[in-house]
């Protein structure tokens, strides 16, 4: 299952440090560890989502995987090649195979370029296509693929709606036929009716091009719809990683439970039947994480051990959880098993 | 969440036939057309819709928080506790704003003054409207910070907005909005910029405080989950008009307008069956300039017929109850 040949991406113990700056931009202050030992695998054709609240390290993880932010520790293996610490020059040929789509289609498209040029630009950089005309033809084909007509080819980004701009960003990312597409909050800026169109497009493209997605979102509804597996992050760590159905069917980590509980369901009858546990306080700063489990100051099930020891991410049934509650459960089970083994009748 | 549909006394807010135009320099575009709704004491009333539907402009017009011109109220009536808001002088409006009507904006970082300490911003309406001394207002500001559950209120009162987190800033906005115990609180996408766990905290706080004050909360949002959890009454807006209005339960159980239905179907949910494809609405919401004579949703509507070239009135039928109205010739 964890065979390198079947995995498009293998990330182990990834760490990212940022030099913290003072308000005047002077560096030299202590570094902040934004991502603290993330390990995950993405199989070919799979969609793995990273969810969590702002500042949990989702986007930083994505940037470190792409080597756009240098990792300070750990390993990133893409399609069987260790790319950790690759320079921009070394990464360039690989950029064809791993593309990213950002949240803000307003900020990620150059306002002075036409749609045709925007979609053709990655091909020109990578030397794909023999001529400008050939690339333009390819751009027209891609616009069609993402559900937009060729009449948009000579328009500029400001003439398009948010949903159309995001489609252009997708066409641009697809122009090099990537194997891996990292989507960083790709639909957060869109209205729900348009969001549904773009999500359907992602599903269609996955089948059509055999893509693998690393999907980053804070929207748990969107994540449920899109993912095969889901990793929940909190303060730079993965706290639970499971298949979509396991995670939403029975969330086990207290943070996952509270996160799901906080999402309002568009049905007043369901809403009345749910009991809402409001999470106290807010996410602490990554610069000053609490000792022990990073979630313990807000956790309704915190035990004394939680403020002392950081729970490691360990296997629990079919999923991985970083929580002392489940260590304890595991420990109790071990004791019970031992007692039974001694021939105690039950 | 106790749904409150009983109408205790006259409405706090009564909007009738509101029409608003925006002067584009050449023509007047229709931004809001024939919008009517009411909010009673103890109620949470939602205006829901996508961007450009006219939710915010409707809400901001209530206290004249819009540049007029280019925006103009072309017809209709806004009554706050019985008073006609359009006949009020600018001074009278200033006496109402922040006093009888509290407002929570989406972006606390732009709504708060970055150069004033937190307590000063909460105390300001108390000094202005309640004629408190600054020292009495400061003490009251600290009480309000406690009321919106800001830990360590005395210290936080001395902070500047940039020293607080997004959630804390939005709590400060809530404290300012409730400082003069308003009859009406307008919350314009109050939690859109916040994380989901903080969102839940702020909305629970807002609804509890509104009900505690016996006021009404006008909640402007695009989030149908938030509406389901907190609203008693829902107005669905599309292209400047209310296309369906109903008690929250009726709207979600028996929404009749195809837009309401499509909007609900296009939200990916955390419970229930997972469809391979989401039901999406083709095309995109129209801009204000695209005003046509017929139903504005018709170009995107799967149930469109020839009759849709004529605008359907907001009305009920023998299946609707409790004042549930919809504007559609071919309802679901």
Automatic annotation (TrEMBL), chain A:
What the entry lists under Pfam families is as follows: ABC_tran, oligo_HPY
Location in or out of the cell: Cell inner membrane
**UniProt membrane topology term:** Peripheral membrane protein
**Domain named ABC transporter: which ranges?**
9-260
Keywords for this entry?
ATP-binding, Nucleotide-binding, Transport
A molecular function (GO) term: ATP binding
Q: Which superkingdom does the taxonomy of this entry point to?
A: Bacteria
Cite the PROSITE patterns for this sequence: ABC_TRANSPORTER_1, ABC_TRANSPORTER_2
**Gene3D superfamilies in the cross-refs:** P-loop containing nucleotide triphosphate hydrolases (3.40.50.300)
UniProt entry tagged with the keyword Signal: no
Name the predominant localization: membrane
The UniProt family comment states: Belongs to the ABC transporter superfamily.
Q: Protein name, please? A: ATP-binding cassette domain-containing protein
Q: Which organism is it from?
A: Reyranella aquatilis
